[in-house]
């Protein structure tokens, strides 16, 4: 039987870079919140051991797709620990709404939903901690999607403390460009020495994103989208971009601005949620 699983977007409500590590990664302080908007995975278990991706993504080989990589990673771990029922496989399709290179965590969310859903469907009985550890092999943002709770993150984004920021309404705009994370993090002008602060201090400061100055410098489309949004509400970049967002107290206020979006910008309105749609489905 085909089952449906939400793969939600995330926003970085703030993102500060506090140093560069010897391995080339950067230490961060960031605040993750989910959106009640995202992709949907369609998963039908198989009994012949075959894993099949039903929906290819242009420019991404199926075996490099994070959905397939996550499924194979879980399958391998479950086989090695004797937790995989004989013949376990799956057909997996996706309704893709989140843009690649958008800073909304689409690929990481797809990987996390695959891990969580197949762990449930195959009855592997991996704990949340074990799934998060597997997810970290696929990307620094995967664990927060596995755990499904809004979180303050440090390290490379893997050290998580659950928090409960206000669940505002957001207008998210995609300026039509793809931004790769390395392009931002390798820029010599990227701020890298923001002081480490406590979560209490950060939650009471005006939120900002250290990556924004580089994204705006390199991509005039991002700069233009932010300049337009700032006329209406507090606005900033999410992740390393390209998406930008503005926060509102009501859905109506956000939709009124969406109706005025200039040609060439694509957007949507969604509410920030501190428990992800994936976690809500699993609990239900």
How would you portray this structure in words?
- The chain is an alpha+beta fold and 284 residues long.
- 31% of the residues lie in helices and 28% in strands.
- The chain is built from 10 helices and 10 strands.
- It has helices at 66-80, 106-121, 128-136, 142-147, 181-185, 199-203, 212-218, 220-229, 251-258, 277-283, and strands spanning 3-20, 26-46, 51-53, 89-95, 151-155, 159-162, 169-174, 235-237, 244-248, 266-273.
- Strands 1, 2, 3, 4, 5, 6, 7, 8, 9 and 10 form a 10-stranded mixed β-sheet that branches.
- Helix 1 (66-80) packs parallel to helix 2, helix 2 packs across helix 3 and helix 7 packs across helix 8.
- The longest helix has 16 residues, at 106-121.
- The mean pLDDT is 96.
Describe how the helices and strands are arranged:
Elements: E1 3-20, E2 26-46, E3 51-53, H1 66-80, E4 89-95, H2 106-121, H3 128-136, H4 142-147, E5 151-155, E6 159-162, E7 169-174, H5 181-185, H6 199-203, H7 212-218, H8 220-229, E8 235-237, E9 244-248, H9 251-258, E10 266-273, H10 277-283
Parallel strand pairs: 3-4
Antiparallel strand pairs: 1-2, 2-4, 2-5, 2-10, 5-6, 7-9, 7-10, 8-9
Helix pairs in contact: 1-2, 2-3, 7-8
